[in-house]
Specification:
It contains 18 helices and 14 strands. It is an alpha/beta fold and 400 residues long. It folds into two domains: 266 residues, Crotonobetainyl-coa:carnitine coa-transferase, domain 1 (Rossmann fold), CATH 3.40.50.10540; 83 residues, formyl-coa transferase, domain 3 (2-Layer Sandwich), CATH 3.30.1540. Strand 3 and strand 4 form a beta hairpin.
Length: 400
């Protein structure tokens, strides 16, 4: 069997909820051995998030698949010793606590370097590890709101709209994985580890790149443009008789092809729409005219005709329609996992494909906090007497 790309890499994962667990999930999919550290009892707070099957959170399982689990009381002195013994044997640590949390416990980055000088340490926090906001907690919608991402979303003259999914969390997790990959390469070349810091606020602002570019040129921000792109027209969502379709015209050749394919000779000859700049200026009139034609056609018929003519277009699909699409099946972006205590359930697959090595998400998450505590302590070389003592005093908890 082919090895996965990160086999042989060991990761100690202190993460919670979504952003850093998302990164740890992808590292596990790629073959890294990921050890998830949780508090005894309740564990990661995302275990309280639904949906549930047999009192097990599928939300938690999705983002912690493929990880081993140990439950440690990091407030206890013995628990801290266990943490540092684990740190000494791993390549990477990831966490997304509020800045300074591990330092207050006496097991922060500097302490970890004492036992593992070559450590790669990756953290996600809401507002970074320094600055006036660094002490504040953060969730996805907070980063989206503070960054301007929400304010730039929605229809002109209407209230702002938050992104439909946890974009800031997942984007921060992706950026952490990207940073860790570079840090692993740096260590391979130099033998030295790195600290990788990701702020969710920075990641959210990073997605506002078009608005920032515009502001740098004009000193202003364009009014929200809803489902249409501010710089091109027609470039957005249009009516169809069975839903909606997206058409993305960015060249004059595509505009001419669109008019020819849909029989829009009058629009092609209309001086209001002669150039992209004019079409942008007369966007509302253009949308109204196009909707008359597209609204009488099916969205997949529009998609097929326009794509065949070289015009980027797509039917607006539901998640169910996406799941049933042949393209989705061929890419294996949706897969099934068997979870102990749950059975089979559907998850999104890690969307990174390598030519000579597999990515495999088909490994279950821990059923309860500390599912593999004893196994992990044994791998550390702890004798049975010490393991029994740690369990008895509550420094470490074993599920089941």
């Amino acid at each position: 069997m082919k090895k996965r790309p990160l086999e042989g890499i060991k990761v100690l994962d202190f993460s919670q909820v979504l952003s850093a667990p998302f990164c740890g999930m992808m590292l596990a999919d790629m073959g890294a051995e990921v050890i998830k550290v949780e508090r005894p009892g309740a564990g990661d707070i995302s275990r309280e998030y639904g949906p549930y099957v047999n009192d097990i959170s599928l939300y938690f399982c999705q983002y912690n698949r493929g990880k081993k689990g140990i439950a440690i009381d990091m407030r206890s002195e013995e628990g801290k010793k266990v943490v540092l013994d684990l740190v000494a044997q791993v390549d990477v640590v990831i966490e997304n606590f509020k800045a300074g949390t591990l330092e207050k416990l006496g097991i922060g980055y500097d302490k970890m370097l004492e036992v593992n000088p070559g450590l790669i340490y990756g953290s996600i926090s809401g507002f970074g590890t320094y600055g006036p906001l660094s002490h504040l907690p953060c969730m996805d919608i907070i980063a989206a709101a503070r960054s301007g991402l929400v304010a730039q979303s929605g229809e002109a003259g209407s209230a702002p709209i938050k992104p439909g999914f946890s974009m800031c969390d997942t984007w921060a997790g992706l950026q952490l994985m990207r940073g860790l990959s570079m840090a692993l390469l740096h260590k391979q070349k130099t033998g030295k580890g790195l600290r990788v810091d990701i702020a969710m606020l920075d990641c959210a602002f990073y997605m506002c790149e078009a608005s920032v570019l515009e502001h740098s040129l004009t000193g202003e921000f364009t009014e929200k443009s809803g489902n249409h792109y501010v710089w091109y027209a027609p470039y957005g969502e249009f009516k169809a008789k069975d839903g909606n379709v997206v058409i993305a015209v960015s060249t004059e050749e595509e505009w001419e092809s669109l008019c020819r394919t849909l029989g829009l000779d009058a629009l092609a000859a209309d001086p209001r729409f002669a150039t992209n700049e004019l079409r942008v200026q007369n966007r509302d009139a253009l949308i109204a005219e196009l909707d008359k034609t597209t609204g009488a056609m099916g969205r997949y018929d529009l998609e097929n005709k326009l794509c065949a003519a070289g015009v980027p277009a797509a039917a607006v699909q539901t998640l169910r329609e996406f799941d049933n699409n042949p393209q989705t099946k061929s890419l294996n972006v949706i897969t099934s996992i068997h979870q102990q205590g749950v059975g089979d359930y559907v998850v999104t697959n890690t969307p990174i494909l390598f030519s000579k090595t597999p990515v495999d998400p088909n490994a279950s998450a821990a059923g309860h906090p500390g599912e593999h505590s004893v196994e992990i302590l044994q791998e550390l070389g702890y004798g049975q007497d010490r393991i029994d003592s740690l369990l008895a005093e509550g420094a470490v908890h074993q599920a089941g």
